[in-house]
Amino acid sequence: MDHSGHGMMMDLPPFTLGRGLEWSADPFFLIACLLGLGLYGWGVVRLRRRGDAWPAGRTVSYAVGVLTVAVVMCTKLNDYGMVMFSVHMVQHMILSMLSPILILLGAPVTLALRALPVAGKGRKGPRELLLALLHSRYMRIVTHPAFTIPMFIASLYGLYFTPLFDFLMGSKAGHIAMMVHFFAVGMVFFWPIMGVDPGPHRPGYVMRMLELFAGMPFHAFFGIALMMASAPMVSTFEHPPASLGIDALSDQNAAGGIAWAFSEVPSVLVLIALLFQWYRSEQRQARRTDRAADRDGDKELEAYNAYLASLNARKG
Q1: What are the φ and ψ backbone dihedral angles of 8, each rounded to 5 degrees?
Q2: Regarding predicted confidence, which is higher, 227 or 215?
Q3: What predicted TM-score, i.e. pTM, was given to this entire model?
Q4: Residue 208 burial (CB < 10 Å; 0-12/13-18/19+)?
Q5: How many Å apart are CA 93 and CA 72, to the nearest integer?
Q6: Cβ neighbours of residue 276 under 8 Å, at least 6 residues apart?
């Protein structure tokens, strides 16, 4: 069985992490990862040459995010993921719930807006096109929670519990499209919540936390449904190659456990990032208030003291 152009899957030996991490690059994702790292690196270098600072933490976060994509798509994890539900679920969870968070913490849109040159008067360059996209009605729709939360949920239930998954797994192009979809869904879901890059939809910190937790229970239920199923639910993984030495139902249960456990990972990561951002925002606000007080000689406090004095005078 040559499965979707990924090589002879029948020959795969039993899965181990060492075998899974052997190099086996998917050309599409290899080029995409190298391009992503190259463009980000160009932006950082451009800022540095101009004398502008760019936080090293953002660069590290972005690079690690892109590398997580490479790990699941440019190694034999991708080959095993074609015939093992559990390995496929690791790919899905990392592409939709870990890679996007790390990449978004790298603030690639902010970097692009700062690094790209401004086009001449009356002309539109890459920076102007990016700004137009950010302020477009399309972007307002796809980053709104009324769109992102249902899409996040539908990419689980609507894909695995319908014939769509088997159809996409039947071709190399379909498989790539599905993996790109997982990543894209994660990006549009977490982008407004992370709030690092500019965007059309920017709720407050409490609302962002509510958005985050609105999707996670459905993720957990999906994992539990797979774990509790008494028969294989996805045709693609119903008859794993004998060389793997695995049972389809046990592998599906493992996939469910991975989906269930992974629903906690982004919650913790994003919550930490949000609390940190909130704290820094409060610090900035406090500094602004202090500077304003220094400039006007703390007139607000004087006015309040005068008000208290007038109340005392009335009582007297």
Answers
A1: -80, 95
A2: 227
A3: 0.83
A4: buried
A5: 10
A6: none
229 vs 233: CA distance, rounded Å: 8
d(CA 234, CA 160): 7
Distance CA 88, CA 159 (A): 13
Distance, first Cα to last Cα, the chain = 96
166: Cβ–Cβ under 8 A, 6 or more apart, which residues? 234, 235, 236
Which span out of 8-17, 59-68, 194-203, 257-266 was modeled with the highest average pLDDT?
59-68
The 10s digit of each residue's pLDDT in 53-62 is 999 999 999 9
Q: Which of 251, 73, 196, 111 lies closest to 187 in space, CA to CA? A: 196
CA distance 91 to 180: 11
Calpha distance 156→30 (Å, rounded): 25
- Ranking 126-130, 147-151, 248-252, 307-311 by mean pLDDT, the lowest is 307-311
